[in-house]
């Protein structure tokens, strides 16, 4: 997790602690299990994320209508790729 993503994650913890904990618990235990529209794999150009030279499937957890957490899922690890407290520009 980059410093920028960590700073955004910490801000999310301050503003929406319970939702952030639910997200964390789910991605730590069952990162490839969707939850309705709350947690789904991304589609199109956003469906892959390259981490250390490996292309990983990218997922998104919707905290609320404005805040999202993007996660890349590896074989035995997950990477938080971005935390957006407003509507992510790349989704426009």
Structural class: alpha+beta
| Total number of strands | 5
Low-confidence runs of at least 5 consecutive residues: none
Distance between the termini: 24 Å
Shape: globular
Main beta sheet strand tally, sense and closure: 5 strands, antiparallel
Element order, helices and strands? HHEEEEE
Q: What is the strand content?
A: 25-35%
Multimerization state: single chain
Task: Please state the CA-atom Rg, rounded to the nearest Å.
Answer: 12 Å
What's the helix count? Answer: 2
Overall mean pLDDT = 90
Helix content: 25-40%
In short:
The chain is α+β, with helices and mostly antiparallel strands and about 90 residues long. The chain is built from two helices and five strands; from the N terminus they run ααβββββ. The relative contact order is 0.20.
Question: Care to describe what's here?
Answer:
The protein is α+β, with helices and mostly antiparallel strands and 92 residues long. It is built from 2 helices and 5 strands. Strands 1, 2, 3, 4 and 5 form a 5-stranded antiparallel beta sheet that branches. The chain is globular, with a radius of gyration of 12 Å. It starts with a helix and ends in an 8-residue tail after the last strand.
């Amino acid at each position: 997790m980059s410093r920028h993503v960590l700073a955004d994650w910490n801000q999310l913890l301050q503003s929406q602690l319970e939702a952030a904990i639910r997200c964390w618990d789910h991605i730590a235990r069952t990162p490839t299990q969707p939850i309705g529209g709350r947690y789904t794999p991304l589609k199109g150009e956003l469906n892959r994320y390259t981490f250390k030279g490996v292309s990983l499937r990218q997922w998104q957890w919707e905290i609320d209508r404005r805040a999202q957490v993007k996660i890349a899922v590896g074989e035995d690890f997950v990477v938080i790729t971005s935390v957006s407290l407003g509507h992510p520009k790349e989704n426009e």
